[in-house]
Design brief:
Number of helices of chain A: 3
Strand content of chain A: 35-45%
CATH topology of the largest domain in chain A: Immunoglobulin-like
Distance between the termini of chain A: 67 Å
Order of helices and strands of chain B: EEEEEEEE
Radius of gyration of chain B: 16 Å
Number of domains of chain A: 2
CATH topology of chain B: Immunoglobulin-like
CATH architecture of the largest domain in chain A: Sandwich
Distance between the termini of chain B: 35 Å
Helix content of chain A: 10-25%
Order of helices and strands of chain A: HHHEEEEEEEEE
Structural class of chain B: mainly beta
Number of strands of chain A: 9
Structural class of chain A: alpha+beta
CATH class of the largest domain in chain A: Mainly Beta
Oligomer: heterodimer
Largest interface: A-B, 34 and 28 residues
Mean pLDDT of chain A: 83
CATH superfamily of chain B: Immunoglobulins
CATH architecture of chain B: Sandwich
Mean pLDDT of chain B: 92
Radius of gyration of chain A: 21 Å
Chain lengths: 157, 107
């Protein structure tokens, strides 16, 4: 009986199944990259309505932070930084902090390089998002996931 | 100890991009903490930082409680000429502080 069913398995079915196997992990990866719901209105406000495209921004954070009180953050944007094409603002957002906006940096062609380093507070393991708004109105973003063992700014601490 | 430290290279070539590092001494009270008798410690954050190099603004930041205590920043700018780099910041208590550093630009 089983053998009879197997013989009915067409090449089309096998190919569809294989394709399905490929798509399942792809779909999962995409959902992990998705923006936290809470940040969407804040990001829209920062960019003037649109959602930024992923790319051109690199956000460097440790994958594991022992303490959330001070976490090194580096953000770099690919831009020639000329009067014709430069980065206007860099926004840093956190998914779980009580104040989701962490900082807003304003840059211009006089910066020469679109790169800022700072230290941030993180209230627990979460996603951090950096959004760069260019002078031509386009917006780009990058996000990073940080595992925090001891959180900062927890109420009552 | 000084209220802040600004680090720039000793000598920069004209036209070169150089790094400025700024460390401000400030508790950056979030307003979420309580003292030992259960009263809320009022929020006191450095909310604006501006750095001006020979009259041109080269760095501007708006800060929120998510910035760590004793805020540290590093940014870049182009060496236009010898002169002065001044950083000015204001906190929620209304205190404005500034710190300046001399910069030497070689030809």
């Amino acid at each position: 009986m089983i053998y009879a069913q197997l013989s009915r398995l067409s090449r089309r079915h096998v190919l569809a199944g294989l394709l399905g196997c490929l798509l399942v992990p792809l779909g999962k990866a995409r959902s992990a990259d998705a923006l936290p719901e809470k940040l969407v209105p804040l990001i829209r406000q920062a960019t003037g309505g649109m959602l930024p495209q992923v790319g051109r921004v690199s956000l460097i954070l440790p994958t594991l932070a022992e303490s959330g009180h001070s976490v090194r953050l580096r953000v770099r944007v690919e831009s020639p930084m000329t009067p014709q094409a430069h980065v206007r603002h860099i926004h840093i957002f956190s998914e779980k902090n009580p104040r989701p906006v962490i900082a807003r940096f304003s840059l211009g062609p006089q910066a020469g390089r679109a790169e800022v380093h700072t230290r941030i507070r993180l209230a627990g393991t979460q996603q951090v998002v950096a959004v760069a708004v260019m002078n031509d109105g386009t917006a780009w973003m990058a996000s990073a996931e940080v595992v925090v063992t001891a959180a900062a700014c927890v109420e009552g601490s | 100890m000084a209220k802040a430290r600004i680090k720039v290279p000793k000598v920069v070539k004209r036209g070169a991009v150089f790094e400025v590092r700024l460390l401000i001494r400030h508790p950056m009270e979030t307003g979420f903490r309580y003292n030992n008798v259960g009263q809320k410690i009022p929020k006191n954050i450095v909310h604006t930082v501006r750095c001006v190099y020979n009259g041109t603004e080269v760095f501007h930041a708006e800060l929120f409680p998510g910035i760590a205590a004793n805020p540290y920043f590093s940014f870049f700018t182009i060496a236009e000429g010898s002169g002065e780099l001044e950083c000015v910041w204001t906190d929620d208590a209304g205190v404005t502080t500034s710190e300046r550093v001399a910069l030497t630009v070689s030809e």
